[in-house]
Amino acid sequence: MTSNMLRVAIVDDHPIFRNGLARSLSDEPGFEVVGEGASAADAVALFNEHRPDALLLDLSMPGGGHQALRSIVETDPAATVIVLTASEEDSDLFDALKEGAKGYILKGVNASTLVSAVQNVVAGESYVSPSLAARILTEMKGETALPQPAAPRNPHDDALALLTPREEQILGLVADGNSNKEVARQLNLQEKTIKHNMTRILQKLKARNRTEAAIFLRDARSRS
Predict the structure, then answer these.
(1) pLDDT reading at 134 higher than 70
(2) Which residues does this entry mark as bearing 4-aspartylphosphate (predicted)?
(3) What is the mean pLDDT of residues 75-99?
(4) Given its phi and psi angles, is residue 63 left (phi above 0), alpha (psi -120 to 50 degrees) or beta?
(5) Where are the beta strands (DSSP E) in 38-139?
């Protein structure tokens, strides 16, 4: 395989679905399926062995997909884990994103959309199935009262103060639901400049993904 292949691992406890997905991705130019598994333990083992560019993870499986996600992100905070599930529950969606998932895709998506989503996530974007994306925007804008873990003091307030005015401007646009490309267009900058700034923002905030960083900013502004 050439070095520019996108290496993917798949973990799902339904063998017919998993095998079909593996065949479909293997047929795509530029994709290599490096491993398959059926449990949380398999997910962790596959990640540690292969360090894939993306790991597609179901949530309903022996050992629990959420546990697998947490374990992988604890091992490598930069890991690209994309949840591929049938669950449309808010709790699964928001927990997965807070645990470090870079994408959340509902099963039933067509092959071309899945391929594009995986490629975009590996390139540094986040992806959530459109039918669920509005819930994230609503949550970030404070229009619903979803259960939040109690916190006596937000430890990210000091980290937010470390952001430069440009970084805070970029994060604000991301919090409004804009992609890197849209932010670049609005600020008349190159997309790679936005990606570079987002990497620095995530490092400063110790956030696992852009959604979590945007929520930190929203929470800080609501208290100011």
Answers:
(1) yes
(2) 58
(3) 93
(4) left
(5) 54-57, 81-85, 103-106, 127-128
Size (the chain), residues: 224
Residue 145 token pair = 């009262």
Q: Give pLDDT tens digits for 146-174.
A: 455 544 445 555 677 788 888 889 998 98
12-38 pLDDT, tens digit per residue, is 999 999 999 999 999 999 999 999 999
Is residue 62 packed enough to be buried (19+ CB in 10 Å), middle (13-18) or exposed (0-12)?
Answer: exposed
| Report field, pTM of the whole predicted structure over 0.85 | no
Q: What domains does the chain contain, in order, with CATH numbers?
A: 6-138 (3.40.50.2300), 156-223 (1.10.10.10)
Residues in CB range of 76: below 8 A, 6 or more apart: 47, 51
**Six token digits for residue 28:** 């795509």
Residue 214 — very low, low, confident or very high, per pLDDT cuts 50/70/90?
confident
Measured distance CA(65)–CA(72) in Å, rounded: 11
For residue 87, which amino acid is it?
Answer: S
* Amino acid at residue number 43: A
Burial 4-35 (b: 16+ CB within 10 A, else e): eebbbbbbbbeeeebeebbeebeebeebebbb
